[in-house]
Every structure is written in C-alpha cells, then in structure tokens.
Write a structure and sequence with these properties.
Shape: globular
Number of strands: 4
Number of helices: 28
Structural class: mainly alpha
Strand order of the largest sheet: 1-2
Distance between the termini: 90 Å
C-alpha cells in the first residue's frame, strides 16, 4: 500500500495565509486561518494582533478589543505588550474615546517616541466656557447647531426640550426635515403613537417626499396594528429604488417587520456590497433567504456569520433551527424571546441545584454538563446583570480549575460593571490568600494587578472587612495605577490592625476596637480612601465627601477616631 504523506501547517504558515486572504478581500478565510494559528499557540501575538486588526476593519471594535485583552492576559513580553497597547489606543481613538486611548498611549509613549497632547480628553469634546458665548445668527449654521443640540437632549431623554428646540427651525430651512424626524423620534420614545401619526401625516402634507417621516409613520401604524395603513405607506416607499446607504438603512427595519422577504434580500445585499461583513445585516439576509425557500443559501450565509463572529452572534442557534426544517423563521438579530426564556429556565434549575448536583455538573464531562457550562458561558454574554451575579455566587461554592479559569476570563471581558467585577474578584480570593495576582479590564482599561492583602484581612469582621474589600474594588476599578494605591491601602490597614503570634487580631491602639461599632460602612470607606489618596490633592476631604455623598460631621468623627486629631482638612 502506498504511504500517504501528511503535513501540518505551522502557526506562521497560517498567519501568512491569513495575510494573503485579507489582502485579497477574503475576510472569512483570513479569520479562519488566524483562529487556526491561535489554536496551535494561543500566545502567538502576531496572530492576535492580525485578528484584532481584521475585526477593527469590520468596525467590530468590541471583538477586536476582546481579542487584544485575551492576548494581554497571556502576559507577553514588553515589546509585544506595547504593540497590543498601541492597537488598543488606535481602536479607542477610532470610536472617539480619547481618554481611554491616552491610558494606553501614555504607557508606551517613550517606546514609540510619541508626543501626547497635554489633555487628550478634551479632543472632540465640548468647548470650554471662557466667559464668552458665541451668538449664532439664525441661518443654516444656527439651525444645524440646534439639530446637534436636540440630538444631545434626546440622548439625555429630555424629550420635551428637544421638541421645543425644533420648533425654532424655519419651515423653509434645509434642516427642517431632520427637525421633523427628531420630533417624531421624541414622540415615539414617549410612546405617544397617536401624536406620531398625526404629526407625520401633517409633515407629509407639507413635504410628501420625506423618507424618514414615511418610515416613522409606517412604524407607528404597525405599532397600532393598522396593517392596511402601514402597507399603503410602504407601497409609497417602494415606488422608488434606493441605492443611498442612509436611505436603505432607514427602510430595512420596516421591510423586516412587514416580512417583505424579497425586498429584504435585495437591500441587505446592497448594504453588504458597500459595508462588507455586518453581522446583523447578514443574519437578516439569511432569514429572508430561508423564508423564500432558499434554505441552502440561507445556511451558507448563517455559517459565514458563525465563522466570523462566533460566540458574539446567535448563529449557532439559527443553524440548529434550520436543521429542524421549519416552514419559516422569524426575523431576529438576537436569540428569539422564546429561546431566551428556555435558557433562563435551565439556568434557574442550575441555581437551585444541591451541592452534590452542582459538583456533578462542574466535574463531569457528559452531555448535560457540557450543555450547562455552555449556557453559563452564554449568560455572561447576555445583558442580564442580576443573573450574572447569581451565577458567580453559585459557582463560588465549587473549588475547581474550570470555575477559576472561567471567572478569571470574565474579569477581562468588555463592559464589566463594578458590582460584577467586585463579586468575581472576591469569589476568586481563597481563604487566607496573602498575595493575589489577576488581570482585569475596568472601564476599558486593561490592568495587571499584583496586591498583598492586609495581614488581618481574612480575620477582620463586619464593617472593617467590608470597607477594606470595597476599597480594594474601588481602587482596582477606578484608578489607572491601582497597584501603588493598593499597597498604600494595605499599609494603612496594617497600621490599624494586624495579627499577633497566635493569629488573633491585634489593634495598634485600643481605640481602634471602636471601629467595629461604626454604623456607616460608606463613611468608613470614604475615610480610608481619603487617606489612601491624601497626597494626590489638597482638597481630598471635600472630593471624597462629595463623591460618596457623605455627612461631613460623621466623616470628620470617623477620620479623627482612626487617624488622630487631624480631620483631613489639611
């Protein structure tokens, strides 16, 4: 028998293939090759940077950043770390977050010979009030300024103020169409559908060719279940053929909601011709193709979504759904509501498991265990914060490598809240842990933490233990140089209380025992953090009281009790 000679590509081979594919516009292939390179060596920084760059080119900033955070968590060499920081800085500049970009650039400024502006945070920000006010004449520039102001008011949900502002715009102005749209958006957000319909019809009587108003009117009719009226407006909309991207993105949601499958296919393809790989648009295209009985083509498109966006998309669910061969599928960019409820019910069963059942799920490798672990991972990509907190508490009952690795991965996830970070952090801290190292992404900033706990931390009771734990979380979450301040906190606590030779609490002053009787943990937190940061500002007392909304008399009383006669005013 002839011998079959096999060969295995190296990580460098896959990287080269990925670069060639990307240059040829084959983004899907490029991602596949880079995934294979990282499967061979998850510490391969070149592949991580390339993969992050591909996702950045698609505008998938969250996936790009997540790729870079994972690479940083492998603790690469200093040069590779600097390159990752640089790419993160570029990503955050691209999404107009200069403060975050500065955090990464500041650390690598010397290596890259960068000259940073004195205040990058002011780039693109509001002009500073120098005592003068610009007075705009009521021309087009003035009306455009009002439009911008109205959008800000809408974001702040000051809807009546936005509507009032739009009344100032002259009906003859070219900004009137945008103003009309803002008014309708505000009314829609107020759920005043009757006013939306009345105002839209009035606007169309004045300007019958306003696409934004037509789309809003059709949507309002749909919400009122007035299908005949909605289809009549849609017929007017479809009298034209649209090639302008802004207009296509305006009509697509209407076409999807009214299940105009052929039109959805037509216009999603036009979007993808110009914007390439957009996951939501691709999902709609796949669903429309399926509903037109082009099921194999639908599967190919959804498989492409799965290949490119993986865990960040609901593609797996829809691919499984297609296998069941339903007559039609509902349009959805995310998991359908029914599927979400089913997953929540399964997770509720997990939360109610006995300790023995919990051990079986975590340590077994059967189908049920794999299913539950996959659901837990999905839950942390969902937006149900309370569920995440409950799951962390449940997982903390099991001492396993899988749980530890999983919780550490969540610490470097994007969009991590303070409460979730704090819960994750102290679930990972084992009893009697003296030194704790971990990586975290807090407010978009990647930080490698190396802290030594106060000597008596694990023996502290009640209010002081809770206050110190909160201070640790606060410093980790908010400070850009947390390790230095964590060390300061440890020294302060050690100066108050430590352990004697028998392992019992030993207060440096008898008066410190009164701390256990303090009623306000929030004030104690403020006092400790004020001491930690005392050298950073002359008005640290005032800043702390304002930040935590503390009672001044109680603050000064606690400060005097712990740190002596000085009440932190000096």
């Amino acid at each position: 028998m002839a011998q079959i000679i096999g060969f295995n590509l190296s990580k460098e081979d896959y990287l080269n293939l990925a670069e060639t594919a990307f240059k040829n516009g084959e983004t899907e292939k490029s991602i596949t090759y880079l995934d294979k390179a990282l499967a061979i060596d998850e510490r391969f920084v070149e592949a991580s940077l390339a993969l992050a760059g591909v996702y950045a080119s698609l505008g998938a900033w969250e996936i790009s950043n997540a790729t870079l955070y994972k690479a940083l968590a492998k603790h690469p060499c200093a040069d590779d770390r600097d390159r990752i920081f640089y790419q993160l800085a570029m990503n955050f500049l691209d999404v107009n977050l200069p403060d975050v970009a500065e955090y990464y650039l500041r650390d690598i400024a010397d290596a890259y010979d960068l000259q940073l502006p004195e205040d990058m945070g002011s780039m693109g920000g509001e002009p500073q009030d120098e005592g003068f006010r610009v007075v705009y004449p009521k021309g087009e520039d003035y009306y455009e300024m009002l439009i911008s102001k109205a959008y800000e008011l809408v974001r702040e949900r000051k809807l009546d103020e936005a509507i009032a502002l739009m009344d100032e715009i002259d009906p003859r102005s070219k900004s009137k169409a945008a103003a009309n749209h803002i008014v309708l958006v505000c009314l829609m957000m107020k759920n005043d559908i009757d006013s939306v319909i009345a105002n839209a019809q009035k606007m169309l009587a004045e300007d019958g060719d306003n696409l934004a108003v037509k789309c809003t009117l059709a949507t309002a009719f749909l919400m009122e279940n007035k299908m005949a009226e909605a289809y009549a407006v849609l017929d007017q909309i479809l009298e034209k053929d649209y090639t302008n991207m802004e207009e296509i993105l305006m009509i697509l949601p209407i076409l999807v909601n009214m299940e105009m499958h052929a039109q959805v296919v037509k216009y999603t393809r036009r979007v993808l011709e110009k914007l390439d790989l957009q996951p939501n648009t691709m999902i709609w295209l796949s669903q429309a193709l399926y509903n037109l009985d082009q099921k194999e083509e639908a599967r190919k498109v959804m498989l492409k979504v799965r290949t490119i966006f993986g865990e960040y998309s609901p593609a797996d669910y829809f691919l499984q759904l297609y296998k069941q061969n339903p007559d039609k599928v509902a349009y959805s960019m995310n998991l359908p509501y029914v599927e979400k409820i089913a997953r929540y019910k399964d997770l509720d069963k997990f939360l109610k498991m006995s300790p023995f059942e919990l051990q079986l799920v975590i340590f077994d490798y059967d189908e049920q265990s794999a299913h539950m672990k996959k659901l837990i991972e999905w839950a942390f990509t969902d937006d149900n914060e309370n569920l995440k907190l409950l799951l962390v508490d449940k997982l903390a009952l099991v001492n396993s490598q899988w749980v530890s690795d999983f919780l550490r991965r969540q610490l470097i996830s994007t969009d991590l809240s303070f409460d979730l970070m704090s819960r994750l952090l102290f679930c990972l801290v084992q009893e009697n842990t003296v030194r704790f190292k971990f990586d975290v992404v807090a407010q978009d900033r990647f930080k490698s933490i190396d802290m030594v706990f106060p000597n008596a931390f694990h023996k502290l009771g009640g209010i002081l233990h809770g206050a110190v734990a909160y201070c640790v979380s606060d410093i980790v979450f908010t400070d850009e140089e947390p390790n230095m301040y964590l060390a300061t906190l440890t020294n302060i606590v050690n100066s108050i209380v430590t352990l004697d030779e028998s392992g019992k609490l030993k207060y440096s002053k008898p008066a410190y025992k009164k701390i256990a009787n303090m009623r306000s943990v929030r004030t104690l937190i403020g006092v400790l953090l004020c001491k930690v940061y005392e050298d950073d500002a002359d008005d640290m007392r005032e800043q702390t009281i304002e930040r935590y909304n503390l009672n001044e008399k109680t603050f000064d009383k606690y400060y005097k009790m712990i740190f002596g006669e000085d009440d932190a005013r000096e």
